[in-house]
Model the fold of this input.
Amino acid sequence: MVNENLVKDAVKEPYKYGFVTDIETEKIEKGLNEDIIRLISQKKEEPKFLLDFRLKAFKKWQKMKEPDWAALGYKKIDYQDIIYYSAPKQKEKISSLDEVDPKLLETFDKLGIPLTEQKKLTNVAVDAVFDSVSIATTFREELAEHGVIFCSISEAVKNHADLIEKYLGTVVPASDNYFAALNSAVFSDGSFVYIPKGVSCPMDLSSYFRINSGDSGQFERTLIIAEESSSVSYLEGCTAPMFDTNTLHAAVVELIALDDATIKYSTVQNWYAGDEAGIGGIFNFVTKRGKCLGRRSKISWSQVETGSAITWKYPSCLLLGEESVGEFYSVALTNNLQQADTGTKMIHIGPKTKSTIVSKGISAGNSKNSYRGLVKMGTKATGSRNYSQCDSMLIGDQASANTFPYIKSQQANSEIEHEASTCRISEDQLFYLQSRGIEFEEAVSMMVSGFCRDVFNQLPMEFAAEADKLLALKLEGSVG
Amino acid sequence: MQSKMKESDPILEVENLSASTDNLPILKGVSLTVYPGEIHAIMGRNGCGKSTLSKIIAGHPSYSITNGDIKFLGENINSLEPEERSQSGIFLGFQYPIEIPGVSNLEFLRVSTNARRKFLNKEELDIFDFEELVKEKLEIVKMDHAFLSRSVNQGFSGGEKKRNEILQMALLEPKIAILDETDSGLDIDALRIVASGIKKISNAQTGIILITHYQRLLDEIKPNYVHVMSDGQIIKTGESDLALELEEKGYEWTDNFIKET
Done:
């Protein structure tokens, strides 16, 4: 059929973030043991409580087993063959952006994240993380005027140790799971956000994570605290070069929302996915969780997952406060040999808590895309409600989609509603659009973005347009 | 037969066309020529190949042409993609318009219209200009503006779907429109709206092929020619009174015909 040629031509669309920045880096030796952890902690000049936190996590990790319940298949990871700290060499103390290696600024420029004063994005503050370290954070002074702290987590450890000590590991304890334990032991950098009481953050905050090195893992750690009656919208983007080896990315994100606070956390994940034959790509094992601690706290996750060879990720909400709200809006797209096992956990603990789950999975090529979600109503969650909608779209006849919804209710006076559907882009739909003059590729991307509309509507404006383009690019030619 | 139009060139020439799907022959040597300003009706039992003929002219990928040619404005279009055919002025009104969830009707209509305009070297329309144009065209099919904000054909009634097809025809201003059972599932009022819409859109430069089972559409739009199809062939061609005779005598009457050449 004519369509098949189109497919073959277009699937070769290159990954445009696949370049490597040639920069001198400081790497420690491969492998993982207590000495390595002490070395990382020492390099970062950390206080003792943090070193203890790391060592304790490491001990736990050593006793844990890598989980195998996800619908994923991959070659065993050799944890001794990974470099746990890699940083671009630069001056010891950087006081302004002028002192940042121009190569690094150029890298972020190329990624569409200009950092310099003249070019920086006007409405978003950015924390740029390159391998294991944060390079720069824009708009810090402006944010500080509002009492907002936005910096790398390493700096927060130095300057706001009290907050770190109080909150780190309280949402995702080190013993939570294998990858969270690993992260807790070796995390290098990430972002820290603190929104004081009553402050609505004046601009969107964002972190951009860039993996550059091929043999080092990335273990970032993000902590966001929204005090009473505050609000913040946080965006996260990720890319990596094309290597024929797999790079491990094991991040932990912790969100804490107090009374009447709102945190909106949006991700566009576009790590390198490997090539058509499944060679290379990022192994993305991420633990993201938010705690709605107060009354009417609200945490909203939105994610567009298009990259990585393997995605294992379940951004979750612990709904403790009365009338607190959790949301999860997800688009996960897999193509070629990508595998994604992603979803959420909504744990209703407090009364009158509410959660909404909207998941859209699109599988093309030979990929495998699973939604896995847990909705739990605790004994005190009286009058609580959940609504879940999980839709899958299959493109071609080699891809697979699964939905694993787990429901546990210990509270009769609560409602759980689950809807699921699977559809396929049909030849008739394509023909209909084509017979109205719409090109094949455009027809596919129109239908896919139509399928994702409910989720895209939740994304911040600039992200929604980006997500639309990204999906179109990823899918080019995947319909046969 | 086509004496009165012979000074102009034909819009569409289907020449001895045979086609199959999954190696199953559906069309077995169909010939049909449409000149500007002509209205042709194709009638026949279910499964006779009339819908297939329309899909093949529009370029449906499930069918392959095993013999013969389709020419549009003198050019062979056998190997053109469906979108290229649409852009150059071939319109197929679907018997069962397809639902496309999540895609806004307005955006769909605009992208489609712009694809045709681009082909014609006309300026593409932005949201505001398109809004103006579509408002005017909605009048023709008496559709409410609210239809534009819904997903393409999703949750539309049968009649609404058909009117949406005619709206597309009005926007695309095709050279030739093949309307596949556009009358089916319509009540009398909707039929009149659709028929008068078709008449308003067509002119002396356009050709129309009406595929239908019923006389009632042909009462509204009088065809110049009526063709009767059976088993993948046109077995009889006549003028508009042939449809009346067919209505009266039923398709059994046509079973006795020998294929006219």
Remarks:
- Residues 57 and 148 of chain B are 28 Å apart (CA to CA).
